[in-house]
Amino acid sequence: MPLAERAVCADSGRMGVSVPSNALTVRVLPSVEAATEVALDELHAATRGPGRPLISFATGSTFTALLQWLHGEVVAGRLHLDRLVATHLDEYVGCAPDQRGGMVHELCTTCPSLATLLRRGLFVPVPADGDPARLRQHEQRLAHLGGVQLQFLGIGRNGHIAFNEPGTDFDVGFHVAELATTTRDDARARFLPGEAPPCAVTAGIASILASRRIVVCAFGRRKAPAVRAMLEGEVDSSCPATALRTHGNVLVLLDRDAAAGLRRGREFAV
Ligand code: F6R
């Protein structure tokens, strides 16, 4: 459905706006906090059903609040750890789970509840050595756990999702990726005084698209060009995030700044 046909509807309390767009639903929220609250609601909804769903988390500044709030929910007893199995998207090659700068370390320090799941064997870490046989085993393990039911996803300034940089084919699974210059620049602060690793193990676009539901978050003006490309550009490997338009069960949560580049973005800001 072209963006011109987007339907506007109010969301009680948080006043978001729903925008069906090529099988994506886009909501522009008034603040990062409001968007994070919607993302947290998604997590509650996914863990409310039967079974123990596999939830895959993303790292990075976009999800810091969500991870902190998740821990708060567990501490407050509103979400029980036995309601989910955790995994994540990607890891810098060679990073041990307790290594500062690494993704597992970030997830577990931001959300200590995930550290608890890791100790109990209920947080499935991405194999950081990138060995192809271990990556296939990892995929099999995720499938054995029922596959990812809810995938949280950020977007890079260059349109990457996980570490699938521009030019990555849409049909690949977990693999080792060479990081783009902008991605390494963004990662530099994590590894100071050292250098950011040049490569990462990442869920491929096919792995991401295999998730039952995907919640994409993007906040801030520097994400606006990538958000516009994701929603309004050609579906093409030059912007990996456009692959999400082929999925069918994707919710995109934006703050006003991230939506600012959309052709009619102002209409959706409240
Ligand atoms: C991290 C990941 C990356 C980030 C993206 C946005 O696990 O998969 O694709 O989601 O680079 O990073 P932030 O949130 O730091 O802007």
Structure description:
With 270 residues, this protein is of the alpha/beta class. It has one domain (40-255): Rossmann fold. It has nine helices and eleven strands. It has helices at residues 32-48, 64-75, 103-110, 112-119, 132-144, 181-191, 205-209, 224-232, 265-268; strands at residues 18-21, 24-29, 54-57, 85-88, 90-92, 123-124, 148-153, 175-178, 199-202, 213-218, 250-255. The strands form two sheets. Strands 1-2-11-10-7-3-4-6 form an eight-stranded mixed beta sheet, with helices on both faces. It has a three-stranded antiparallel beta sheet with strand order 5-9-8, with no helix packed on it. It is globular and about 45 Å long. Bound molecules: fructose -6-phosphate. Fructose -6-phosphate (F6R) is lined by residues 58-62, 89-90, 103, 154, 156, 160-162.
What features would you highlight for this structure?
270 residues; Rossmann fold; single chain; eight-stranded mixed beta sheet; disordered N terminus; alpha/beta; globular; 9 helices
Give a quick summary of the entry.
The chain is of the alpha/beta class and 270 residues long. It has helices at 32-48, 64-75, 103-110, 112-119, 132-144, 181-191, 205-209, 224-232, 265-268; strands spanning 18-21, 24-29, 54-57, 85-88, 90-92, 123-124, 148-153, 175-178, 199-202, 213-218, 250-255.
